[in-house]
Each structure stands twice: as structure tokens, then as C-alpha cells.
Design goal:
Elements: H1 2-19, H2 22-29, E1 33-38, E2 41-63, E3 69-74, E4 81-82, E5 87-91, H3 94-119, H4 128-153, E6 156-158, E7 163-165, E8 175-176, E9 183-198, E10 210-215, E11 223-230, E12 240-248, E13 259-275, E14 280-282, E15 285-292, E16 295-307, E17 310-315, E18 322-326, E19 337-339
Parallel strand pairs: 1-19
Antiparallel strand pairs: 1-18, 2-9, 2-13, 3-5, 3-8, 4-7, 5-6, 7-9, 9-12, 10-11, 10-13, 11-12, 13-17, 14-15, 15-16, 15-18, 16-17
Length: 359
């Protein structure tokens, strides 16, 4: 009886081993794996570039006197908002006023003389050359009067445009020359923010492009600034160029000289991209499964960047490759695959009950 049982067990073992033989293994490998695959997207690699920019007023000037002299009045203080043409500094102008009066007398005298010449012109008592000399004398006196008025006007330093004044650099009683700085004025209703940008971004940062600026005085705030102009050349030593952006300085919140952090995206290479679920990690690195002629092929790859659930990578893809994004754990090298559609999420069913109806 014992020998019969042993014989039966041995025969059953042979039957089980036979069922697990090469033919059965081949049968299982012939069954295609059901997977979801898609073509790799082509996405531009983008790197965020940060630069430091400095603000300057859209219009700014340093003020110098046109002539040397003694300062008799300073008519502005730091921070004053002045209109174009407003007097800022007065120099001693007594001599210039006398010169204007003297030139006015000369004009009046030349005009009277020419008038007498005109009254007797028809009598023949005067030659044509004498009358011409009278006209020339009047014109010369008028020019000297205009010159005297210009010299008198130069004794007053006026605002060249509407804006805010800086700190006065002179005081009443100072003696100044045309090289003496009186002060500064700037119109800061608009600010230019200049910053250096790398050569790779030259095509992107054209006039009209938008750049994000973050003031160091208010790091929580981001300002969208428009590119006003770009430099015409690249600096050979730094391989960069200057970009000028413009912002509206509402409520006079910023000052010339303030620092801003400029942020913008610099496009790079265009790379294939797949969902993160398609990436598999092995002992020799990461790889993906590509479907070629209905068969799964392992494609080694290196990750270049990640963006919004996608992985940008470098890998030897072939034209027409479809990348397996679901079912990656079910396939082996050379296995046949069956492409299926991605399962849609089940529809939500809503139940409407009348008011007061029990749940």
C-alpha cells in the first residue's frame, strides 16, 4: 500500500513538471501585455534666469549754472516738486540788468535815427548807402539787446522739466562756476529698470516682452514690466547684454537707484517628454518602454528636467515610437504588447430629492 502511494505521488509530480515545461512558458509569453502607450511630447526646456536690476528715472538731469557768479537765492529744497521753467537758483545779475537797459537805449536811438532818414529819403539829401547804414545800425543794436537779455536769463537757473528736486549742493552766498553742481531733478512718474541678461536670452527679450520684477524693498510684490529696449551688442567679457524695462511708479512708491530682482524664463533645447509614471528605475539607471512593431523595447534615458508632471529626457527614440505610460511593470524586453485606451474615471451619479424628502 505504501509503495502504491509513493508511485502515485511521483507520477503526479511528473505531470506538474510537464505542465510547467518550455511549451507552457512559451504559451504565457505569447500572451500580449495590455498597456496604455502614447507618443512622447516635444517640450522646450526652460530655465529660470534671475538678474539684479537698478532703477533710474525716465528723465533725470544734473543742474549746472550757465555762468559764474555769486548765489543770491536758492529757491528749492530736497523733495520739492517743481514745474518746468520754475526758478531754482538766482545769481547776482546787477551788471546784466544794466547791460539790458543800455542795449535798449541803443536800440531806441538807432530806431529814431533811421526814422529821420526815412522822412527825408525822398528829398535826395541822403544817399542810399547812408540809409542802409542806418538799417544796419538798428539791426546791430537789436542783436546786442537780445544778447544782453540772454546773459541776464543765464543768471537764473530754471527747472528744465517738471519733476522732483534732489538735495541742494550750494547755499546762498556761494560763488559758483559753470562746473559747479547745483542739484539734481528727476521725473520719476516712470522708472527704467536696467539689468544684464545672458546671451542665450537675446532672441526672447525683445521690445514688448514682459519680465517679472521684485523690488528688494517689498519682496512680497511682483511687478510685470515691459521691455522698453535692449542693447545693440553683446559684451564680449561677460557674454551678456543690457535690457531696459519700464514700470509705472504709481503713488511715487519707488526711487531711482533702488534694486529690483528680474525673473524671466530662458528657453533651451526641445526635448521629448513623458508622464512621470512611464519612468522605471533599474540597477543601471532609469529607462522607459517603447513600443516598436508591437513589441516592448527598453530605452535607457537620462532626465533633463521636470515640469507639471512631465519628465523631459534624453534618450534614443525612433520615429513612430509610442511610450508605455500604464502597465510598465507587466512587460519584459521583447514581449508583445496590446495597446488599449486609458480607462476613463467612472461617471458620478447625482440623486435629486424633493425638499423635505428623507435621505
Amino acid at each position: 500500500m505504501t509503495n502504491f502511494v509513493q508511485t502515485t505521488v511521483i507520477l503526479a509530480s511528473y505531470l506538474i513538471l510537464g505542465a510547467c515545461g518550455p511549451d507552457a512558458q512559451t504559451s504565457r509569453e505569447d500572451v500580449p501585455a495590455r498597456v496604455v502607450a502614447q507618443k512622447a511630447q516635444r517640450v522646450a526646456e526652460t530655465s529660470m534666469v534671475e538678474a539684479i536690476g537698478t532703477a533710474r528715472a525716465a528723465t533725470a538731469a544734473e543742474l549746472y549754472p550757465e555762468a559764474a557768479g555769486l548765489v543770491t537765492a536758492v529757491r528749492f529744497t530736497a523733495g520739492d516738486y517743481v514745474q518746468s521753467g520754475a526758478p531754482l537758483v538766482q545769481l547776482d545779475d546787477r551788471r546784466e540788468q544794466l547791460a539790458v537797459r543800455l542795449a535798449s537805449v541803443a536800440v531806441a536811438e538807432a530806431d529814431q535815427l533811421l526814422g529821420r532818414y526815412r522822412r527825408i529819403e525822398d528829398t535826395g539829401a541822403l544817399s542810399a548807402s547812408q540809409i542802409e547804414a542806418g538799417v544796419t545800425a538798428l539791426q546791430s543794436a537789436q542783436i546786442e539787446l537780445e544778447q544782453a537779455k540772454v546773459a541776464l536769463a543765464d543768471r537764473t537757473v530754471r527747472a528744465p522739466f517738471t519733476g522732483h528736486m534732489g538735495i541742494p549742493q550750494i547755499d546762498r552766498g556761494d560763488r559758483v562756476t559753470p562746473t559747479t553742481l547745483i542739484g539734481t531733478i528727476d521725473d520719476r512718474t516712470r522708472l527704467f529698470v536696467d539689468f544684464p541678461a545672458p546671451e542665450a536670452a537675446f532672441e526672447q527679450l525683445r521690445s514688448g516682452a514682459i519680465v517679472s520684477l521684485v523690488p528688494y524693498s517689498d519682496p512680497a510684490r511682483t511687478i510685470d514690466a515691459r521691455v522698453e529696449a535692449v542693447d545693440s551688442s553683446i559684451a564680449a567679457d561677460t557674454r551678456s547684454f543690457t535690457v531696459r524695462t519700464v514700470i509705472a511708479n504709481r503713488n511715487d512708491a519707488y526711487r531711482p537707484g533702488m534694486s529690483f530682482r528680474a525673473n524671466f524664463a530662458s528657453p533651451g533645447r526641445t526635448l521629448p517628454a513623458v508622464p512621470e509614471s512611464a519612468i522605471i528605475w533599474g540597477g543601471d539607471g532609469s529607462y522607459i518602454w517603447a513600443v516598436r512593431s508591437g513589441v516592448a523595447r527598453r530605452v535607457p534615458m537620462t532626465i533633463a528636467a521636470r515640469r507639471d508632471g512631465l519628465v523631459l529626457f534624453n534618450g534614443a527614440l525612433q520615429s513612430g515610437d509610442r511610450i508605455i505610460v500604464e502597465g510598465v511593470q507587466k512587460v519584459r524586453e521583447g514581449q508583445r504588447v496590446e495597446l488599449v485606451a486609458r480607462n476613463a474615471p467612472p461617471a458620478q451619479q447625482a440623486v435629486v430629492r424633493a425638499a423635505g424628502q428623507g435621505k
